[in-house]
Amino acid sequence: MDFIESVPHSIDVGGRLRELRQERGMSMRALARASGLSTNALSMIERARTSPSVSTLYKIAEALKVPITAFFRSDAPRQDIVFLKANQRAQVVFPRGVWEGLGGEAFTGGVEPLLFSLEAGANSGQFGMTHGGHEFVMCLSGSLEYEVEKQRFTLGSGDSLLFAAQFQHRWRNVNKGETKVLIVLSGFGKDDRPSEYHITKAVEPPKDL
Predict the structure, then answer these.
(1) Which residue, among 178, 209, 40, has the nearest Cα to 115 in the 3D structure?
(2) Ordered strands of the 134-141 beta sheet
(3) Which domain holds residue 26?
(4) Of 42, 43, 54, whose CA–CA distance to 11 is shortest?
(5) Would you place residue 6 in the very low, low, confident or very high pLDDT band (cuts 50, 70, 90)?
(6) Is-contact 142 173, C-beta < 8 A?
(7) DSSP designation for 205
(8) Pairing of strands 111-118, 151-156
(9) How far apart are alpha carbons 94 and 117 in whole angstroms?
(10) How many Å apart are CA 68 and CA 204, to the nearest integer?
(11) What is the CATH number of the domain that holds 18?
């Protein structure tokens, strides 16, 4: 899998940017000054004329004082039954990987399945994460290392791991090629968004920001 650094068109980043900017009463010029980006670049993003890089989104998120995951949230009504075609999955692209929602973001219940496609060296960040509920992990292909409360588990194809998500945990692809992994988050609070911890950790700002 080639290195990808832009956000796919399946996410309406431009629309979310406009909403977040207007909610804060910021003009395009004010956001440009705060983010260090040009008004033309911001306008192009809002009008969906260009897809921003992850580093650009970090600059905008910092200027708006919101987490980067705010751009990926969906305000669509949640449903009791969710049928999702493979080409309809929400995607978030981060350095060395792709996160795909499997319908949990639109489901009324407290369950959220995720699919990660990880390049060699992809990881969830330097520091561990904790969140509510439980976490089930199954390695579909490749090899993935999970660290839970300082215990390390290496998952090969078909291996699985289940733990209480309040335990500090992090992951990394230890395979020389791509690794695919299914993660199912469950038992979390109604207003919690546990998947955002995995996205946020995986897309920590580049060192040059």
Answers:
(1) 178
(2) 91-94, 97-101, 111-118, 179-186, 134-141, 160-164
(3) 13-72
(4) 54
(5) very low
(6) yes
(7) P
(8) unpaired
(9) 10
(10) 9
(11) 1.10.260.40
Q: Are residues 99 and 185 in the same domain?
A: yes
Q: Indicate whether this model's pTM tops 0.90.
A: no
pLDDT tens-digit readout, 110-121: 899 999 999 998
Distance between CA atoms of residues 67 and 190, nearest Å: 20
Whole-number Cα distances in Å, 135 to 104, 158, 179: 14, 16, 18
Contacts of 192 by beta carbon, 8 Å cutoff, 6+ apart: 131, 132, 133
Task: Judge if 19 and 109 occupy the same domain.
Answer: no
Per the structure, the count of domains in the chain is: 2
**pLDDT class for 74, splitting at 50, 70, 90?**
low
Name residue, tokens 């980006």.
37
SS3 for 28? Answer: helix
Is residue 52 assigned to a domain?
Answer: yes
Sign of CA dihedral 11, 8, 132, 140: positive
Rg (CA), the chain: 17
Q: Is 183 helix (H, G, I), strand (E, B) or coil?
A: strand
For 19, phi then psi, to 5°, come to -60, -45
In the structure encoding, which two tokens stand for residue 66, read together? Answer: 């919101």
Are residues 115 and 40 both part of a single domain? no
Q: In what order do the strands lie in the sheet with 143-148?
A: 151-156, 143-148, 169-173
DSSP state letters, 48-65? TSSPPBHHHHHHHHHHHT
